[in-house]
Amino acid sequence: MRRVIDRDEGELISYVRGRPGTTALALREVGDAAAALGALRSAAAALRRMPHPDVPADSLVSWASALPGDAGPVLHIDMQDHFAYARRVVHAVLDALDAAGLDGRLEPVHPPVPPFEYDADADIVTGATFLEALDRRGLPPAFPDGFPVPGGAVLVIAQRARDGTWEHAAWRRDRPFADFPESLGRFGCELEPAEAADLLVRATGMTRHLFRHPAGTGSVSTYHEYEPPAGPSRWYVSVVWRPAS
Question: How many domains does the chain have?
Fold first, then answer.
């Protein structure tokens, strides 16, 4: 009789629906680790071939990859904000694993408590993973010495690109960050205005600058929460830093 991977399907669907951009599914208690990794890579390939219902030329997921883990291989999935298709994604993964005839259990990977106060409104960068630790300054480690941390603000995002080439930090406070680009200028950044998406400009008042610095390049965006009926009460600044090679 064909083996079926042990799982709690409802738990998996609920997890993917709640974390569509940062899904991680681990295959635990596996007898053959190499076969398990191969099966998860087949599942990742199946997800990448899955067309988006609204745009068939595009994939439903923007990224899917299986990687070895300390306690078994892990399937990482980024389906951006397409949480409505969580059930479809979970079924595709389970079908691939069941077809491989493996033992083991598929379960969600719950990340450790982040070293920042997560705010979904500040999570505007794709292609990144959350940092599990900050440096002694309370910053992503690639940010240069002397980087001007905005005053009176709370760090709400700290991320690194999946390829390791840049890091992202965002802060929130109860007043605008209109002065922060000037702080970057005093730090030695040469700023150049850049266009933000028209929808974001209308909904959040976003302004964006690209910058160059002897230690690296990047961008800075200032914006507020999506406009509520009473007007915004939370403002954000987002910095992407790419160290000089």
Answer: 2
